[in-house]
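Issue 218. Parser rejects a valid record. Input:
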Amino acid sequence: MPFWVVIVIVLIFFSGYMAFRAMQAERKLEQEFIEKEGMVYIQRMQEEREKREKRKRESE
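Output the parser choked on:
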C-alpha cells in the first residue's frame, strides 16, 4: 500500500475527530446559552409577579 494512501486515511480519521470535537463544543455553547436565556426569562417572570403583588397590596 502506498504511503500517501495511509496518510490520506489518517487525515480522514483526524478530520472526523476534529468535527466531533467541534460538534461537542457547539452543543456545550448552545446549552449554556439556553440556560442563560432561561434564567433571564425566570427573572422577568419573578419581577412581574412582584409588580402584580405590589399593585394588589396597594389597591387593598
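Fixed in the parser; the record now loads. The two ends are 88 Å apart (CA to CA).
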